[in-house]
Amino acid sequence: MNLHAELAKERRARLAAERLLKLRQEELHAANAQLGKHANALTEEIVERREEAHDLREQTDQALQDLKLAKSEIHIAKRRLWDSIETIEDGFAVFDEQHELIVANTAYLSVFDDMPLVGPGVSYPQLVSIMLEEGIVDIGQDRPQQWRARMLERWHQPKPEPLVIRLWNGRFVKLLDRRSADGDTVSLALDITDTIRNQKKLERAKDRAQAANRAKSAFLARMSHELRTPMNGVVGMADLLKDTELNEEQALFVETIRSSGTALLELINDVLDFSKLEAAKFVLVAQEFSLRELAADLIRLFEPAVQTKPVDLHLSCDANLPDRYIADHGRIRQILTNLIGNAVKFTESGSVTTTITAGAPDENGRLPIEFRIVDTGIGIPADRVDYIFGEFNQVDDQKNRKYEGTGLGLAISRQLAELMGGTVAVESREGEGSIFTLTVPLQPAQASNAPAAVSEVHVSGGLTQNALANEAQTVAEDVVRKMRILAAEDNKTNRLVFEKLIKSLNVELQFAENGRQALDAWREFRPDLVFMDISMPEMDGKEATLRIRREEAEYHLPRTPVCALTAHALQGDEDEILSSGLDHYLTKPLKKDLIFDQVRKAMPQGVEPVFEGDHAAPAVQNSLLATTEPTVILPEQRHQAAE
Ligand code: ADP
Hints:
Bound molecules: adenosine-5'-diphosphate
Structural class: alpha/beta
Oligomer: single chain
Shape: elongated
Number of helices: 20
Number of strands: 18
């Protein structure tokens, strides 16, 4: 080969080698660059991982710290809870489903006096047995086995009732047991000794207060009796003196004595009623009565009061109303007496009109009877309308001051009405007049619904009875005799007053000075009517009447009308009086016309005329009873009736 070719070949080879080298160099460079990148990425990853590991370590540390804190908080909470449970003086314990003690505070365990057996694991039945065996509990009259059985029976109830047990040292523990959702039982043993002691103290204090109240009532009753007996003498004598010959000045003195005495007696009665209502000792006595008789009595009562001033007294009663009801008519009369009395007192001229109507019966058949008293008097200022129902409250202005009164009447009336399920309401306009309304639900009597005509027969029943039940005797005697009246009264002055009061009557009067003498006199003297004082030495009026009734029944004798004369002002006594067989009662001081009413009612046939003139029954009463139309008594009618 030629050199040139050789050189060319060699040059070509060299160039090729150089190209290859360059290529390899480039490849190496690229590989190097790649490697560098990788190394960078790796470094970054390592840094990241390191950071992550650091974070994780921090988080773990935090979690560990939190856990430690939580543990310590739980510990504190547990300790506090337990400290609290330990601090309370009451027992606390938890039992598991097998009734074994899990935990109990010192108060719970202290009852068992550190007995080693009593601790976690002891069962409830074992605790009960220990209480019995160690005499921890005072089981009173119970037998131990019974007591144990009762305790366990209670324990096994799903919801045990609270139970109070008494410990040996006199302390009282109330057991409260509650089942929790997981079957545990949480038990509380509360020391209620102080509560029970306080309760007992309160009960004793209440008993003492009640006893004091009873003593107060009894004292008032006694005092009223003591006060009323001499007052009866004063008022009675003044009444008699009034009818004797007196000069004008003397008549004024006597009238002052009489009216002051009467006012004093009314005051005593009011105060007594009120104190009795206040002590919640007022007893209502339901008895059959006639509405029309009640109305007639009221009219008669207020007739004298309107004689001295130009005031007309009206009374009307719905004629369709049943006449007879069962209720405490004494109390109804008392309320009406106060309301009509006020109306008359506060009316200088015009009229006082009372209407009696009824609403629809209630589900028990009781009729709401409404007594509406309308007057044309001084009226009551609007701002005083509620005030006057308070105790001792009066419309206190110059106008009012001249009227007498205690300010107790309306307070008593409202309370009495409410006691009977009724109400007292008022509407008034100052200077024009007032309307007072008593509404009281009344039970019509069984054989009632009979209007006036029937009640008239009933009222004259006393006469009829005496006439038919005494007929044989009268015929056998066949001699006209005087009516016989027996009056039992231990007080000499009262006997004198009574004698004077009836001196105008043509009767044979005999006195007895105590119940025993009254009984003997009743046997011997055979009176047509007995007036019986209640409080008498040896044998009181109630006992004497009971014995009279017993003998009448035994020997089939006619019933002698017996009318109680009582100085007892305490309301509620009359139920006792009437339950002793007395037919009626009159309160001292005795009123002549009321005594005469009783005499008229009891007057038998075949006796000499008792009253001067004829035997006419009380005019006002009869005119009311005889009508079946709504009754309106006008003053002129009253005078006609009286004639
Ligand atoms: P008293 O009549 O004894 O003062 P009340 O309790 O019965 O006591 O009456 C209280 C007061 O109510 C009376 O003093 C009087 O001021 C007023 N009042 C009662 N009824 C009437 C009436 N019909 N008209 C005017 N005022 C009356």
